[in-house]
């Protein structure tokens, strides 16, 4: 009896330690805005090639709202970049966490002046500056910036993250006790099953109609033709906000036994691309539908994400089995889907070909004029890789079809393409590799090994070599020599092939700070060009992906 009592005490102690270790300080961090938190996106929401790593807090469609420090600490870092976070502030706190505030318009005055001085010193707009604890200390609630719409933002809002300072893992901010009203359970709108004898990519998703009966979601008995299957679910969390937020916690049970579960508590930026192994990538890219797997794909190695078995269900009989799927948000609001599954007549499985690429195995494949080398981490599931060439009159190579853009690649692969004619050294210096993946293009400058151009990409599509003798350019928003009394100077950039890789502006011979806003370059008038300063000459030098440089000169009066 004493042994039993001690065992119970020991188990309770262990459970208490585990619970304590998973607790995060409640009430330590305040709302980073002075308006109620209204979410446009939550932690773990599905994004293109990454999980959403924080909270998107709405700013009532306005810019320049005060952004304040969520707790005492110091500004440890700032970033200024074209895409991504745009203008961002990192505040490190004494409790082991760092908060991040992104898409900002402006830093607080002293910090903004420091960054500006550094930009002029470096003659470079993009910055990534680290600070010591005594340079810019802040207190809880202190103004640190003004909200905005910079970087990879589609509308005014504040992106807010909480990170483990030591590991730099992003942690779900909703675990820290922010006061956000939420009484709505996750909403389920679809259920899918996959034949797992070969790959989730072939033959792909099988949709199941889901209906809500009372408080429970149900479907008809699911008849499957494979003894090995897995499930995926289409669901959103509304959280009283009106936006489609991501799912936090899911459990899958068969006949009352846990088969698979995932919970999105913390993710490192080094691992965020594993999102492509957690969702039906084909559906996401091709059909714009977000479906999350309730199983592990063999090449999905995201730590601290899933538990239970791998989620693959083995149906060894023709009996009817009970399936239950439980979804929860951070506040514990719960939805349930109950259904049944039964193996009917088994069909033939998809077979592999001589170019099958498997997870955890590197592979090199060749065509007559191209070669692709995939690492062992390249694919999440088995792929029957289809690679072929076709003539291309616009290019100095054939077009190389690399399977299709609906299959994800986790890391960078090496691609080699041979030219279809002998190029001079000058032509080689102006050659780029273009990868078209349907929704966009990625263009890089070619590296040469004899007549073979080499480059690295992390998406599939159609690649080709292009000779680019064109010049990049910018177009001013003002007429030549005009008097400008208000508003910024805006230059619209253009490059026929690739992108403008570098930009330099000089006002009357001195470097002038233009911000990169998507494809535009913007200068907001300041003491470098005050009113009444007379006539000015603006020289702009742009360089494109191929390395072609163009110098343009514009005049205006102030």
Gyration radius, rounded: 27 Å
Count the strands?
48
Q: What are the low-pLDDT stretches, counting only 5+ consecutive residues below 50?
A: 1-21
Helix % is under 10%
The outline comes out as: flat
The overall pLDDT average reads 93
End-to-end separation in angstroms reads 91 Å
For the sheet with most strands, the description reads: 10 strands, antiparallel
The total count of helices amounts to 4
> Helix/strand-derived class?
mainly beta
How many separate structural domains? 4
* Content of β-strand: 35-45%
Pfam families: Peptidase_M23
Domain M23ase beta-sheet core: 51-118, 137-166
Protein name: Peptidase family M23
GO molecular function, one term: metalloendopeptidase activity
In short:
This protein has 558 residues and is mainly beta.
What would your notes on this structure say?
This protein folds into 4 domains: 138 residues, Distorted Sandwich (Glucose Permease (Domain IIA)); 157 residues, no CATH class; 112 residues, Sandwich (Chondroitinase Ac, Chain A, domain 3), CATH 2.60.220.30; 85 residues, Immunoglobulin-like, CATH 2.60.40. It is built from 4 helices and 48 strands. The chain is flat, with a radius of gyration of 27 Å. The N and C termini lie far apart (91 Å). Helix content is 8%, strand content 41%. It is mostly beta strands and 558 residues long. It holds the Pfam family Peptidase_M23.
